[in-house]
Amino acid sequence: MNGVATPGKAVNEISVPETVHGTASVAPGDRTRSSLPWAALGVAAAAALVLYAPIIAGMAAEWSEFPSLSHGFAVPLLSAYLLWIRRHLLAEAPVEGSLWGLPLIVLAVAMLVIGSLGGEPFVARVSLPLALFGTVLFLMGKSITRHAWVAIAFMIPLPYLTLRALTYKSRVFDAGVTATIAGWLGVPVLREGVMLTLPNMRLEVADDCSSVPAIAALLALGAAYAQMQPRPTWVRVVLTLSAAPLGLLSNIVRLILTTAGAYYLGPIALNNAIHKFNGTSVFLATVVLLVVFDAMLTRIWKRPES
Q1: Where do the H-state alpha helices sit in 53-159?
Q2: Model-level pTM?
Q3: What are the backbone angles phi and psi of residue 196, rounded to the nearest 5°?
Q4: For residue 115, is pLDDT > 60?
């Protein structure tokens, strides 16, 4: 009675108030506070979609108009997939907003205004991933940004002037390799720059035939594929970086088959889905090559264990 309690009474006096306090006060408050940043991020993402709607519509129009850019529709899907496979890491990461994201948001909005009013679409387009990066950093903090940056980085388009120069060099290279290998296959072809002259028709390795515009998307494809299964870090890096050259190889194979088909079958070889949607066909072929290359790498890095 004077401060000495029986075991039964001690349990009742100590455990019950803690249980009531935990279930009624702390958990709902914590749950609400933890969901607020994610809700704010959703609102910010929706606002960004509205703000960048004209930019996104312009890019989508180019993806539909130019076959070599048709892979652009896959980039948002790949970015979403990269976020999905990191969902557990994102859920467990602490939410600690950072003021360092605010200057990035201001810079992105300034680039959007300058690019839109100044007729520089690249500046306006590159501000979109910058705005997303800054928003995530500002609202969610460094830990979440560290897991999400990969999905955002592959949305950055290549500069137009750089893309133009690389595309022309790629056309010349692709035409030379195509003419050489087609000759080995018994197809008589004369190459003049980017022109391929066959006995029955004349072909041009045009800008749409180059896979250079798809480099960023191919790297995103490689990164998404590398994250599908547990792998050593070096294997993931190799798979990610190998997607671009494998995509270029897939495009050369497509050009060789098109040239041979044009010689043996005629114009019908130029009026099929593989030729019209070359960006998509190169993507699919790159996936196949990634699977084969992954199987080779798997045998290498698992060999010491066996």
Answers
A1: 53-65, 74-84, 87-92, 101-117, 121-140, 142-153
A2: 0.61
A3: -120, 115
A4: yes
